[in-house]
Each structure stands twice: as structure tokens, then as C-alpha cells.
């Protein structure tokens, strides 16, 4: 709520370094810019404060221009109870619309630099031997006449991941943070393991 105290020509930035211009990184837009100050509906602002509010809004317009600033004066630390292990739960059911909304939000956060994809592939030691050739695999079947793919459905998920490596597969989505207990698709060296 606006209060009629002080003068609008006095500096409003009293918090140490907490301004939209504090960031030296490129600003990333997370919301469309608001309408021009002159177009704002200020009917809820008391008459005696409207003009001051317009001047202040114009002067500090970078604070709410739709870009994401970054505060360098503090960080948020999370200290876990000793011996705490990552929490893993089965994901909640989500319909296509929820997933669509989630994907849009994840993309928005990626573009804004709020989240980043896990870099497991970049730090995984690559197997040095080549994958078997498909034609050689077929040839090794000899005169076999009947083939079945029933046991290959979700084949990667049939391969367990040792407990010591499960945290390396952690990911989060709309319902929380997860990790794989079975081999997921897309891991480096997963095709060779399968």
C-alpha cells in the first residue's frame, strides 16, 4: 500500500545492491513488459499520490520491465540433516494438459537461466570399445526362424542401476525430485550396456 511519506526525489534504493541493474549478466525476459506508465490503471491509487507514483514508476521502470535480475549479495543455502539420502517418490499422475503446462514452464525457466539441464553426459567416462554391428548380431542368430520382442519392451528399464550411482540420475519435474533405480533412456553408455 502506498503511503504519503517522504519525497519522491529521494533515492528509493536503500537495500545494498538489490536493483535490477546489479546484474552484469545479460538480462533474460521472463514476462512480457508491462504497459507504458501512462497506460497504467491507477484508479486504486489515492489522487494525491497518482502523479508521484507515475514519476516513480517511470524512474525505476527497469525494476519491473519483465527481465530477470540476479541478486549477488546473498545465496540460499540448504543444509541437510547428516546421513540424509535423496528422497525419491513415484511421480503423480498428470494429464496431457498438465504436462504441456509443465513443459512450457520448464522451457521458460531454461531460457531465463533459472534451471539448467544436468550435465551427466559431459562427465561420464565413455566406453572405448565400439558398439556391436547390427548385421553381425543378426548373423550370430544363425538359422533361427522365430523371434520375439516381448522381453525387450522397456528394455533399458530392466537394467538396475547400483545404489551408489542413482543420485547421478536425479531429475525433477512438476511433482518433485526423482532419480532412476533402473537404467533410463539417453544415458551415456546405456546402449552398450543394453
From TrEMBL:
Residue ranges of coiled coil = none
What name does the UniProt record give this protein?
A: Reverse transcriptase domain-containing protein
Disordered, as annotated region = 1-41
Domain Reverse transcriptase: start-end pairs: 120-194
Q: Name one GO biological process term.
A: proteolysis
Species lineage: Eukaryota, Rhodophyta, Florideophyceae, Rhodymeniophycidae, Gigartinales
Cite the entry's keywords alphabetically.
Endonuclease, Hydrolase, Nuclease, Nucleotidyltransferase, Protease, RNA-directed DNA polymerase, Transferase
> Which Gene Ontology molecular function entries are recorded, alphabetically?
endonuclease activity; peptidase activity; RNA-directed DNA polymerase activity
Which InterPro entries does the record match to this protein?
A: DNA/RNA_pol_sf (IPR043502), RNA-dir_DNA_polymerase (IPR053134), RT_dom (IPR000477)
Basic and acidic residues composition bias: residue spans: 1-15
